[in-house]
Every structure is written in structure tokens, then in C-alpha cells.
Amino acid sequence: MSDEMDIILMERIAKKDEASFELFVTSYQNKIINLIYNYTHSRSDAEELASDVFIKVWNSAGSFKARSKVSTWIYRIAANTAINHKRKKQLPSSSIDGFINISGNKIKKDIAAPDNKQPQSIMEKNDRSAIIQTAVEELSPQQKMAFVLSKYECRSYLEISQIMKLSVSSVESLLFRAKQKLKQILLPLREKGEI
Amino acid sequence: MNCGKTKKMISLYLDNELKEAEKKEMLLHIDSCPKCRKDFEFTTEILQNLDPAEHIDVSPYFFQKLQSRIKENNKEFFPLFNPRFAFASVATLSIIIASSFFTGALMGDTYWTQTKSSETVSIEEAKAALKLGTLEDFPEGSVGNLYSKALGGA
């Protein structure tokens, strides 16, 4: 959807036009749910939090000042909603969908009980990916959001800075520290030959 | 270029945020520094082994559920109009009205216990000063008599 169309829709949503709201939700629901899903790894949380995002759009469309693109604005709401959710919930390792706790490490369920028909190389690759994903879960809520936007959404530092309302140098620093933390977690496992 | 700066450059390089000249400078340092090369290779390996972004399909009833939540939120915002809260609303209003009567009675200035107001006292003082039994005792044609008639007196 074009930026102009987005702005027109926002103006109509501010006047509580339900048809425009439905059009807006339809055009963004996929992106927002999948951004949150790649952050939380929980389908139910993704839909619940995406609903929170769209409710905020419905309630605050009138305060949108068009200082940024509508797409950046809604991604910002989504990022903040997901970060706050992670901060509040402080998810225990075992409650994340698709992951379980093994010896203090969160490992994907399908790795813990692998399908024996899978070739060995795929199982090893999955195993390594699961351990790396476990380490990603250990990043701070902000570091993780910057990481998800960079690696899963393929956003540039400038775009991440606009979404997260940070300076580009802060984003640079967040992502540098995120990588340092991943290395810090994973290096001992590598030295033990576990990855 | 020192090793500290190279670490930061590696992070930028792996996020496609490095300019061409900086890229060359970083790669030159990595070629000559085994420690930085090891760091570069390990970071690259981590990022290459990340799970790819997952994609889930949105529930076909997502918008309907969203609409229901918005309607529910609006009711909670105006609980007086919500049938679930109707009894509680009426009860609350009744308590407020009853407690205001009760407070008034305690203060001794309700309609049925009212003592002489300052207006009543002034009228009695005026009657005493003019030596009148009632306000109708003003002489016929006087201003006081006309005023009394205008007020509905005799």
C-alpha cells in the first residue's frame, strides 16, 4: 500500500471509519503478526499482541502526525508492544512455544525428540540452529528486537533507528553488543564441541 | 586499524552497513590478525546458522476477533452503558443520592428541619421597625402596599 493511501486510511480511521480500519488491518496484519512471531516464537502471543497493536491504531489514529511513515509508526507500536510484553512476562525458558529446557538450555522440541528419518547432517544443522536460537532468547528485549529487525526483517540501521526511535549509533551499539553476547554464550559450547 | 575497531567493523560488515573503503581496510586487518580472523569466522558462523525467519498464516477470523475486542473495550470504557454493569450502576447512583440526604439530615439543614433563614429574620425586623402586623398593613396607595400587591398579597 502506498504512503499516501496509508495516510488517507489513517485520517478515516481517526473518524472511526470501520471499513478503512478493516482495509488497513488486512494490509498490515501479516507483517505485524510475523514480526511479533519471530520475536516471541509463540503463535498465540503473536496474534494477541498484534490485536493490541491494531487496537492502539484504532484508538490513537487521530494523534498520528505524519512525521514518519505510517508503516514505520505501526512497526514502532508493534516493536514497543512486543518489548513491553517480554519485559513484563519475563518468559521462563520452558514456556516459549516450540522450545523446552534441557540442562539449562532451551532446545527446540523437535530436536529433543528428533525424527529418525532425517539425515544426520540436517539433524546436526537443526541442533546447532536450535542452540543458537536459545542464545538469541538470552538477549535483552531491546537487543533482541534490533536483532530480529536486522536479521529476520532485513532492515537497515536507519530503518531500525526510525522504528525503535533511537539514534543510528545506538542501533549500531545494540547490534554490536547483541553479537558479543551471542559469542559469549556460544563460545564455551563450541570449545566443548557441542556446536 | 586496531583489533577493538575491527570487532565493531565486523559487526557492521555482517549487517551490510560498511562502506567499500572500510570493508577493504577491515579485510586487510583480518588477513594479518589471526585473533580477529577467528572472531570474524565465529560471528559469521553464528549468523549463518540462525534459523530462517518463520512465517505463520494469519487466522481467518483475526479481524472479527479484533472487532469483538474493540467493542468489549468500548463497553469497559463506558461501563454505565454496559448491561452487565447496569445493576451496579443503578445501585451506585442510589447509594450516592441516599448518602447525600443522610449527610444533609446530619447537618440539620434539610427542607423539613430548616430554621429561620436570614431572609425571614430581615422581614420580621422590617415589620417591627415599621410597626406593622403584616406586610398587608401598608397604607393604601403606598409603595409598600403596591409592592405587597405585586407579590400577590392582599
Describe the structure.
The complex is a heterodimer of chains A (195) and B (154). Chain A is built from 9 helices and 2 strands. Chain A has helices at residues 3-14, 18-40, 43-60, 70-89, 109-112, 120-137, 141-151, 157-164, 168-191, and strands at 99-102, 105-108. The longest helix of chain A is centred in the last third of the chain and has 24 residues, at 168-191. The model of chain A is unreliable at 93-103 and 107-116 (pLDDT under 50). Chain B has 154 residues and is mainly alpha-helical. Chain B is built from 7 helices and no strands. Chain B starts with a helix and ends with a helix. Chains A and B meet through helix 2, helix 3, helix 6 and helix 9 of A and helix 1, helix 3 and helix 4 of B.
Largest interface: A-B, 41 and 30 residues
Shape of chain A: elongated
- Beta strand % of chain A: under 5%
Low-confidence stretches of chain A: 93-103, 107-116
Find the count of extended strands of chain A (DSSP E, 2+ residues): 2
The overall average pLDDT of chain A, rounded, is 85
Q: How do the helices and strands follow one another from N- to C-terminus of chain A?
A: HHHHEEHHHHH
Span of the ends, CA to CA of chain A: 43 Å
Largest sheet of chain B: none
For the residues shown, what is the average pLDDT of chain B?
81
State the shape of chain B.
elongated
Oligomer: heterodimer
User: Radius of gyration of chain B, Cα only, in angstroms?
Assistant: 45 Å
Share of helix among residues of chain A? over 70%
| Low-pLDDT windows of residues of chain B | none
Rg of chain A, nearest Å: 19 Å
- SSE sequence of chain B, one letter per element: HHHHHHH
